[in-house]
Amino acid sequence: MSRSDRSPLLLAGLLATAGVAHFARPRPFDATVPRSLPGTPRTWTYASGVAELALAAGLALPRTRRAAALGAAAFFAGVFPANVKMAWDWRHRPAPLRAAALGRLPVQVPLVLWARAVAQGSGERA
């Protein structure tokens, strides 16, 4: 298996792990949901977990990989406000927690780029 064949599966694994975490330990995710969104934070936590699991499944299958990768890029961009909220909310926490919250912000850029690269590498192959 080449590096380009592993990349979509690694991205799928990352999304699947995050998706499962949204159900296994939802409380930390609830706290990052912006208050301006309608509904309960738990609903958004579960919905994003479902989205991550669906994207992971789509990435794992060559037939749906390109669409799922584009969806993952949009998803990573879309959850950025939650990471901003977390960084703001944690600004008075101990330094290691503050650093972790701030460190999440620039990570979104390589995740979006990774997902786009997977989409481009998938081309029109089925």
From TrEMBL:
It is a multi-pass membrane protein. It is found in: Membrane. The keyword Membrane applies. Pfam families: DoxX_2. The chain crosses the membrane at residues 43-61, 68-88. InterPro entries: DoxX. Keywords: Membrane, Transmembrane, Transmembrane helix. It comes from the Bacteria. PANTHER family: DOXX FAMILY MEMBRANE PROTEIN, MEMBRANE PROTEIN-RELATED. This is DoxX family protein.
